[in-house]
Amino acid sequence: HADTAMYSAKEAGRNNYQFFAPEMNARATERLRMENDLRRAIERNELLLHYQPQIEAASGAPYGCEALVRWIHPERGLIPPDQFIPLAESTGLIVPLGEWVLREACRQQVAWRRAGLPDLVVAVNISALQFHKPDFVTKVSAVLAETGADPASIELEITESALMQPGEDLSARLLQLVDLGLTLALDDFGTGYSSLAYLKRLPITRLKIDRSFVDDLPGNAEDAAVTSAALSLARDLGMQVVAEGVETHAQHAYLTERGCHAMQGYLFSRPLTADAFAKWLAGFDACAHTPAPGTARPE
Ligand code: C2E
Ligand code: MG
Ligand code: MG
Ligand code: MG
């Protein structure tokens, strides 16, 4: 009996082992597969950019767009960035991926210019890891030269958390980007811990208020307080504010009344393919600058 009991315990132990190991293996295997797929996605041309219009609050006219990456996986279909940017960041793949995004956005800006579209700002997201690479400025400069993009029409969106990393004084690096003729926006503003003193020293043109603060406007008192504070801070620092995730007329009205410069959100348009964006813009011009909020169609 003693032997049987020991045998059972061993069996149970082995079963326990077998219970956990395959699951962990499956997760690791899945992650590895995704990593390999992502590594090849750039070479295989599986990435593409969508462009979400940005509207000037005062005039209601579009002044630019944000380039947002998508992955068309051969088996899984369209994968949104939230499902692969974190993996790209943890594996370092964000560096080549981010460079692809910048090059593609610059290439598109040149194509639109050649097609006679009005000169619009194309905003490009830059990940912290990318921004902190010592050769980042050199890379950006090379992509601008290679594509012939007008730096005045390219805006780099750098997250608040990327700028709040200790150590290095990043204002010098930001100034080098400004010297290239680019404009800089602080993305996801309000989610980090930027000190006002630090912000003041940075050559940043625009603050992008994070969607999480816009969602519950105008009803939510805390979000209203954060938004108002951001707007008055921006005014005092001579920066502009872009509100993200504007979905309702009430949010639009609330932000406009408080001097928000620009907006982006489903109320105006979802992110669009390059062709759909050009058509949207043409349709907008045909309407003689009457924004048609609420006519946004799904991507
Ligand atoms: P983000 O830079 O803050 O971009 C704004 C996100 O909000 C986009 O999601 C956009 O589609 C979404 N959005 C805009 N308006 C609305 C709205 O009215 N309602 C709602 N519910 N959502 C709205 P998306 O395209 O899924 O991108 C998510 C995040 O992935 C981006 O946040 C950015 O952090 C990251 N990302 C996207 N493309 C790139 C890229 O090329 N490089 C890097 N490093 N990150 C990227
Ligand atoms: Mg952004
Ligand atoms: Mg943002
Ligand atoms: Mg975000």
From TrEMBL:
Q: Where in the cell is it found?
A: Cell membrane
Can you give the residue ranges of the EAL domain? 31-285
**By what name is this protein known?**
EAL domain-containing protein
